Amino acid sequence: MFNALVLNKEEDQKATNEIKELDISMLPEGDVLVNVDYSTINYKDSLAITSASPIIKSYPMVPGIDFAGTVEDSSNSNFKVGDKVILNGFGVGEKHWGGLSQKARVNGDWLVHMPKEFTSKQAMAIGTAGYTSMLCVLALENNGISPNSGEILVTGASGGVGSVAISLLSKLGYTVCASSGRNEHAEYLKSLGADNIIDRNELSEKGRPLNKERWAGAIDSVGSHTLANICASMKYGGTVAACGLAQGFDFPSTVMPFILRGVTLAGVDSVYCPLKDRIKAWERLATDLNMDHLNSMINIISLSEVEETTQKMLSGKTHGRIIVDVNS
Fold first, then answer.
1. Superfamily assignment of 128-267 in CATH?
2. I need a labelling partner for 304 at 20 to 30 A (CA). Which of 4, 129, 169, 311 fits?
3. What is the pLDDT of residue 137?
4. CATH for 2-114+297-325?
């Protein structure tokens, strides 16, 4: 028997959640059984658990789009009992029972081996948010954006993706401008390596098709008018790595930044990202992330605190990385 957070929903009613004791036979199909050490709360988890968006595809559902733990049983040739593993995405916590549970049974093709540099707690301190941040940095690099190219903008700076992105970029030598609506977190953002901080309201309203060239690159987790204004303010040949839609999924822009300044809008998907790119991202995180910064981002909660925390996240009252100790 093990404990898990279980979501249920009847017809058009709002989903309810409850910590339940389950039998291992109730787990969905998969060729690897994992004893979960830690999971996290990401923005998508908050949308799912609060029913703020139709993330969950079927009920009952154990939410949690990522986890880290130890293989308990495996019929997959790539994993053996005792292996430390990480899972990010692949519909886990949406279509397939996820990480907010003491045990998970999954398809081994969704797993990556945990780099030896990390503990399970550190791996989930990074989590899907940090792994997505690394994918965004790789997208900038793949498009030739180097520390010498100019300033890099990071939106949603005090959130999980933004916090890790700032730390990564700073350690790699980039000049970072952080966009945040939380003045009280200015010192926190500076401690991660932000050189400049702007108010998110500078970017959040309808703007012009083209603005003065400012940023060489950007990592955006916000979308909507913010993303449109970022593109309008990019330097010639700049790249925007877009990975989120906290403000909205619309994109009220024009073609002008792309055909007059050669701006690249690089979409970053962390859910179904190919295995080779996942492995590369985790290998780079092991070398490029400032672990002191990571420790300063962490807030650890229990399964019983998940619902309250998701409400706070959607209200903009959290920052950094929220780890769930599923065994506490």
1. NAD(P)-binding Rossmann-like Domain (3.40.50.720)
2. 129
3. 98
4. 3.90.180.10
